[in-house]
Amino acid sequence: MLKIPSLLPFTQSITASIIPSLSLVEKQIPLRLKEKLIKVMPKILQPSLRFVPFSAQKSVLIPALHSIFSEAITDGDFEFLQDKWLKISILDLQLNWWLSFDQDQLIMASPKDNIAEDVSFSANGDDLVLIAGRKQDPDTLFFQRRLKIEGDTELGLEVKNLIDAIDIEQLPSSIHDLVDFSACFLQNTHDELAVANG
To answer: Among 74, 85, 90, 136, which has the minimal tally of Cβ within 10 Å of its Cβ?
Structure first.
C-alpha cells in the first residue's frame, strides 16, 4: 500500500491551525474581493506549479488517489483502465496527468512518455474542487460545458461514475478540511455573486 509522503504531518499541523481561522475571516471578506481572489489565484499558482517536478507531483497525487478510491480499487472498479490511459487536464493551471491501472494500483505516466490517452477529462481547478467537495456533481458541470469528456465514451462513463463516488472522508483530516473549506468558499462566493448580479 502506498504511503502519503513524510511531509504530510507538517502540512497537517499547518492546515489544522489555519483552516478554522480562514473560515472566520471568509465571512468578513467583501464579495468583490472574494471574486477577485478566485480569478487571480490560478494566475498566481500556474507559474509555480509548472516547475514542480513530475516525481513530486506523482508522489502526492498517487497516494491521494489511493486514499480516496481505496474501496473502489479493492473492489476492482478500476480494472476498466487496465491497458488504457486517462488524461486529466486542469486547464487554468496548465496541468496534465496521465493515469492508468496495473497490478491492482493506479499508475501515472510522465508527460515525456508521450502517452496517447483513450479518454480525457478537462476542467478548471475551481470546478474540480467543487466536485471533490461535493458542491457540484459532474453531470451538472458537463451539461454546462465546464467539464469536458473526450475520447472513448464507454471509458468516460466509467470514470464519471467513479468521480460520482469520490469520498474525501478517506483523505487525512487536514487535507479533507482544506478541500472542504475551498469548495465551500468557491460555492458560497458563486452563490453570493449570483444573488448580487441577479
So the answer is: 74
